[in-house]
Amino acid sequence: MARVSAQFFWKNMHKDITAFVQQCMVCQQAKTSTTLPAGLLQPLPIPHQIWEDITMDFIVGLPPSEGFTVILVIVDRLSKYAHFALLKSDFNSKKVA
To answer: Is residue 70 a contact partner of residue 87, using CB atoms and an 8 Å limit?
Structure first.
């Protein structure tokens, strides 16, 4: 923008330049990253016995089934054995003031 405006001016110049850069494939591929490098990735240690190290996650946004709308997933990292727990979500029943 600064380089173009040093030599040229027209009405809605900023809007036109922004639209051109957004549509230009070379401009999009040449953008520099604004995040710090991730550094060295370290693998997670291997557990020595089952249920020593677990992961948990929620599956949400499901249609209601007998009042249950959420599934809690618990997985043992060593054996990959999983437990699934049905949960009721009270989020939809609360009204926002």
So the answer is: yes
Residue with tokens 């029943």: 93
3-state secondary structure of 6: helix
Q: What three-state secondary structure class fits 95?
A: coil
CA distance 22 to 53: 46
Q: Are 59 and 71 in contact (CB under 8 A)?
A: yes
Cβ proximity of 52 and 78 under 8 Å: yes
What are the 10-residue block averages of pLDDT along the chain, 97 residues in total? 88 91 84 80 91 95 91 96 91 49
